[in-house]
């Protein structure tokens, strides 16, 4: 295989998971701007996700968020997904929206609230059994707002105990992906604030526990690619929640705020041997004012562009420059790849996959946007939290 053929082959096998909640209405705490044609049910979210996969060819799975995507029969939902041309992906738990969770969920000082949260997490594993999903994605809003509010160390003990119970429930081929976030909704302390805390818990739990890196969950200036390199080196990188941020957890389209950072992350993934199905590339975004389906298509394309550039890095030339201490040349090798316009290459890849070279234009021509506006009338639109 020529080098370019290998790059193309790698791009064709990429899989970016889209999140069910990105298809519904979302907003800020100030206002949710509802859009017409937005899904009313989990089933309709799957139909929209299938459109993203149909036009990009690399978005074969959809993550669910429970209970936002609660249905009676999860096996039937998985079957429906397959009929539409996609599969169900990670199951995201939700222990942050009930009044009971004011002081936390599995770190709550009261054992009965911890039990409630744990029962929810165990139910999520039951759902994985029914859907065939491999990954349970855990993000905890747990934390405190004021110094002294609770015992920081006791909260870690409760976290450890709760995670162990869930870990023990995982079946063969199932994983737990633990997500960290440095603040929000808690403003003083967060119980899983950083990769170090997530890593320490995952290490203790065992091989089925892995860390997930949400690109929006770091303090400004954090070197995320270093975290990626380190987790991969330790065999503990389970996947990504991709999105981009200008200020806090903005959940904007991945690659919109800092495409160079996305390239650097993808380079470390590839360099570290993480470009395999064991590292899940998921989106975790909200499209507050832009049309949802084309925004998700654009996001998938942004991931593809960063990946293509990272695959094009001349690693032999880079190794030589690094060995010789040629700082400028090493940097130039990396920048040459980053500055390559990979859009023609990706257009070729898509055509070779039997797709339109321009997924957004093809989606616009398809009439799907008009169809859902016409058909999805009545009922309640799905939204973030509904
Ligand atoms: C938290 O900010 C988070 O990134 C977690 O992944 C949640 O599951 C998701 O947002 C909900 O949108
Ligand atoms: Mn996330
Ligand atoms: Mn987030």
UniProtKB/TrEMBL annotation:
Provide the Xylose isomerase-like TIM barrel domain boundaries: 52-246
Keywords for this protein: Isomerase, Manganese, Metal-binding
Q: Name one GO molecular function term.
A: L-rhamnose isomerase activity
InterPro entries assigned: L-rhamnose_isomerase (IPR050337), Rhamnose_iso-rel (IPR013457), Xyl_isomerase-like_sf (IPR036237), Xyl_isomerase-like_TIM-brl (IPR013022)
Pfam families referenced in this protein's UniProt entry, alphabetically = AP_endonuc_2
Q: Does the keyword Manganese apply?
A: yes
Q: Which Gene3D superfamilies would you find in this protein's record? A: Divalent-metal-dependent TIM barrel enzymes
EC identifiers of the protein = 5.3.1.14
**Superkingdom of source:** Bacteria
Which residues constitute the signal peptide according to the record? none
Question: Known PANTHER family for this protein?
Answer: L-RHAMNOSE ISOMERASE
UniProt-recorded name of the protein: L-rhamnose isomerase
Gene encoding it?
rhaI
């Amino acid at each position: 295989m020529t080098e370019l053929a290998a790059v193309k082959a790698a791009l064709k096998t990429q899989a970016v998971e889209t999140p069910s909640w990105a298809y519904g209405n979302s907003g800020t705490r100030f206002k949710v701007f509802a859009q017409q044609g937005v899904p009313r049910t989990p089933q309709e979210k799957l139909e929209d996700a299938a459109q993203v996969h149909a036009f990009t060819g690399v978005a074969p799975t959809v993550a669910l968020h429970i209970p936002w995507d609660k249905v009676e029969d999860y096996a039937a939902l998985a079957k429906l997904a397959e009929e539409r041309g996609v599969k169900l992906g990670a199951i995201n738990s939700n222990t942050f929206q009930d009044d009971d969770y004011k002081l936390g969920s599995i770190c709550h000082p009261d054992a009965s609230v911890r039990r409630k949260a744990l029962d929810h997490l165990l139910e999520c594993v039951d759902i994985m059994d029914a859907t065939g999903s491999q990954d349970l994605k855990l993000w905890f809003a747990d934390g405190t707002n004021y110094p002294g509010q609770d015992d920081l160390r006791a909260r870690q003990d409760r976290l450890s105990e709760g995670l162990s119970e869930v870990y023990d429930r995982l079946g063969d081929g199932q994983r737990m992906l633990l997500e960290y976030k440095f603040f929000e909704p808690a403003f003083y302390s967060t119980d899983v604030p950083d990769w170090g805390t997530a890593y320490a818990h995952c290490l203790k739990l065992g091989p089925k526990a892995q860390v997930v890196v949400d690109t929006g969950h770091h303090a400004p200036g954090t070197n995320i690619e270093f975290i990626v390199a380190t987790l991969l080196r330790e065999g503990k990188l389970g996947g990504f929640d991709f999105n981009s941020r200008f200020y806090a957890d903005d959940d904007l389209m991945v690659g919109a705020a800092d495409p160079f950072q996305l390239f650097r992350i993808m380079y470390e993934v590839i360099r570290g041997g993480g470009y395999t199905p064991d590292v899940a590339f998921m989106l975790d975004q909200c499209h507050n004012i832009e049309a949802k389906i084309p925004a998700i298509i654009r996001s998938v394309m942004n991931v593809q562009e960063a990946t293509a550039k990272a695959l094009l890095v001349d690693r032999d030339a880079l190794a030589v420059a690094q060995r010789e201490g040629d700082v400028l040349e090493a940097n130039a090798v990396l920048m040459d790849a980053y500055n390559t316009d990979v859009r023609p290459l990706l257009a070729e890849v898509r055509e070779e996959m039997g797709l339109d070279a321009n997924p957004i234009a093809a989606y616009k021509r398809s009439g799907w946007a008009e169809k859902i506006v016409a058909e999805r009338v009545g009922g309640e639109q799905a939204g973030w939290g509904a």
